[in-house]
Amino acid sequence: MTIPIALTIAGSDSSGGAGIQADLKTFAALGVYGATVITALTAQNTRGVTAVHAVPAAFVTAQMDAVFEDLNVAAVKIGMVAQADIIEAIAAGLTRWSPRHVVLDPVMVATSGDRLLADEAVASLRSLLIPRAALLTPNLPEAAALLQEPVASGEAAIARQGRLLLAMGCSAVLIKGGHGEGSESIDYLVRGDGVLAFPAPRIATKNTHGTGCSLSSAITALLAKGEDLETAVRGAKAFVTTAIAEAGRLDVGKGHGPIHHFHGVY
């Protein structure tokens, strides 16, 4: 049996709800084989992050080379990158191996509010990884932070920020609306040919741990399966919306619980 393969380059979440763990659950739920490059170990749970241990950049390189020289990777998701030297190692690896699809989720702050990207690494993220991305997937605060602007409100302002991010060199930008207001959570896909809106009902729940990781990895999985970008975004949005809606069936932790990645299985 031939199975599509996706690679996640991200940090590990010891509580299992976000990061590498959420990515692997998402890949599996969508019928894709997942490989990993771990950039950082985090001591965290549903209430917050208590410690971060960055993986040495040389070992990030070793992981990337080990995966790419053996596995037929169809798509790559990049999440938490932690430090500038790790970003440099990832960028060099992408140049060496030239994967077809790269989805970059600029993880800067955890759901709990804890900082996950060093301030001095943001410039490297802008200059080295964003230009290599087929899709950039910031939430509203991340888009604002990357542009050093206030958080956008309203479709026109969000589309404007999307175009500014597009000018940094990526092929497309999906600005996620989970941090917005109103009865709908609307994600906006900004490309050179225009803007597409992907609305979904806003679900009142505290169980949102790993939502952004899961959306970007779902898009990556669907791209690995051969879907075009618009179809992949639409399918990923539907998958994550249902996973959020079904999260109440799980009783995990005392803070922001995880979404239900395997809602279609149990």
What would your notes on this structure say?
- The chain has 266 residues and is α/β, with parallel strands linked by helices.
- It has helices spanning 19-29, 57-68, 84-97, 122-129, 140-147, 155-166, 211-224, 229-245, and strands at 5-13, 33-45, 48-54, 75-78, 101-104, 135-136, 173-175, 184-191, 194-201.
- It is built from eight helices and nine strands.
In short:
The chain is α/β, with parallel strands linked by helices and 266 residues long. It is 36% helix and 22% strand.
Topology record:
Elements: E1 5-13, H1 19-29, E2 33-45, E3 48-54, H2 57-68, E4 75-78, H3 84-97, E5 101-104, H4 122-129, E6 135-136, H5 140-147, H6 155-166, E7 173-175, E8 184-191, E9 194-201, H7 211-224, H8 229-245
Parallel strand pairs: 1-2, 1-4, 4-5, 5-6
Antiparallel strand pairs: 2-3, 7-8, 8-9
Helix pairs in contact: 1-7, 2-3, 3-4, 5-6, 7-8
